[in-house]
Each structure stands twice: as structure tokens, then as C-alpha cells.
Predict the structure of Glutathione transferase.
Amino acid sequence: MGLLVEGQWKDQWYDTESTGGKFVRESAGFRDWVTPNPEARFAAEAGRYHLYVSLACPWAHRTLILRKLKGLEEVVDVSIVDPYMGEWGWSFSDAPGAIPDRLYGFDHLFELYQKAASGYTGRVTTPTLWDRKHETIVSNESADIVRMFNSAFDGLAAHPERDYYPEPLRHDIDAINERVYHDVNNGVYKAGFATTQEAYEEAFETLFATLDWLDSRLAEQRYLAGNRVTEADWRLFVTLVRFDPVYVGHFKCNLRRIADYPHLSGYLRELYQMPGIADTTNFDHIKQHYYRSHGTINPTGIVPVGPALDLYAPHGREAVGL
Ligand SMILES: N[C@@H](CCC(=O)N[C@@H](CS)C(=O)NCC(=O)O)C(=O)O
């Protein structure tokens, strides 16, 4: 675990001392956009962009889901890092489920960032969207990559008719995303990476208050923004699917499991059972990454064997909201 400082790799853990024990996520360093406009610097083209992901990472997972649902697998290819993140950060290997760097054969993801910007200072994160033409990083912000995949490649996608950010629902989706991001997606990290009791408890309480709110919302409506699946659902899904296997134990988010929530549990199963989604979810990478990579939280690196999950059980959501 570390970061680049003026282009040099420094091995260091998150600094929580200056923030009273709280984990504060940094903003992404590259925020350009692929657009359908052929004149643009980053124009949508088949075979031009490459996505670097970790299958463990919830932020990368949401981009893989949009790529799958939009039918972009032939348009944007991927490399998949090793699940273990050690002193050199993310690295490439031929571990099961990993795909070594297809473009440059690099050993570590930070080498890609050095290639994009030689004096770069910042974290080296997944997902990272790479442009073969300009040999640089377009974006390492998953929320933006999700939106690009939703619409920028529609001229090339197998499913241009699918829209996960529909115009009339944007206001609601943005509002839901905002709360889910702070309290749930990042909330589990705030609980897990806290280094004071107070910081942990604050994150814990907010997290479960928001899960309770989501559960009651899902009692009345089938999906977060109404009767159709939107990006708000996929952004929540990636945290829910990691919750019982990892966040309950490793991040001490243990008031309740998702399996204990009457509506969130069926909702999670329904999303998981949608065509293609299980293929994007790799529980081995998920568990290996968290339990082995965070030495301050789990010094032995032992990966728990359980829990037993039954995500293929009937979800029973057909009549909700009718
Ligand atoms: N804002 C980023 C966050 C991405 C992120 O933090 N990814 C994690 C993996 S789950 C990472 O690569 N962490 C490495 C680090 O922070 O050094 C996004 O949503 O794309």
C-alpha cells in the first residue's frame, strides 16, 4: 500500500493521524471523459480504451457491471490485478482470475501511472481507464467511468437501448447516490479504517441508519429509483455483495448482516441473479484482497472460510411496488 510522490513510489498506509482517526478518501487524479464526438481528444472508438481493474474493488466492480450490461466487452478490454495489494500497491500476476497487464507487461499498476504522467503525485487506484492512442489515463474515477460506459459508447455497444441514468430520474438518482456513497460505499471503509473508537462508532451508526432507510425504501419499491434498475442500484449492489463476506467481520460492520434485512437481502439476490452479474463477482478475489492486504487490521492474513451465502435462493421481489 502506498502512493506516488513526484513520480516515485512511497510505501505508506493511509494517514489518519491528522484527521482524528478518520479515514478520508482522496479525490481521483485523472478526470477526463470519453465522448461520442469523433473530433474530441478522447473519442469513443472500439479497441482504443483499456480498463485496469481489481475484482476485489467495489469501485472497479461498478464499471465492470456497466461494461457487461451495456455489452461493451468487445469494445473495451480489461487487465485484472492480483487480489493482494502489498508494499508495491496493485500488481499483475497470473493468479487464478487475474489477467496480467495486456498493454505493457508491467509488474505494478504504478508503472502505468508513471507512464501517463512522469511527475504524478497521488494514489494509484482501480479502476483506471487507459487510452491506447494518447498513451495516458483518461480517468481513475469510477463514478465517471460508469457514466461514460452508460452512454459514450452507444454507437458501439451491443445494448445501446439500456440506459441506467435516464433523464427523468437523474435528480433522484443523484440524491440517492450522494447518501449511499458517503454512508454506505465509503461508510464501510470509514468504519474499517478508523483508528479511534469515536471515528469507528460514528461511521458505524451512520452506516446502519442508512441501511435501515434503504431497507424500508425497498419495502415499497422494487429498485432504488422506482420500478427500473438504474446506476444507483449497481452502485449500492457492489457494497451489499461484499458486506456479509467481508465488511461484517473485517471492517467490524456487525450490527446486522444484509441477510438479516428483510428487503435488502432479496434485493441483493435479485440483482445478483440478473444475467451476467454473477460473472463480474469474484468472491475469492474479494476475500483474499481485504483479509490479506490490510495488515494493520488483520495481521495474520488469515482468510475466513465462511460465511455460506445463498445468493441463488428465490428473491421474491416480483410483486414489490406493483
Ligand atoms: N474514487 C475512486 C476510488 C478508487 C479506489 O480507492 N480504489 C481502491 C481499491 S478498492 C484502490 O485502488 N486503492 C489503492 C490506494 O488507495 O492506494 C473511484 O471510485 O474510482
About this structure: The longest helix spans residues 197-220. DSSP finds nine helices and six strands in the chain.
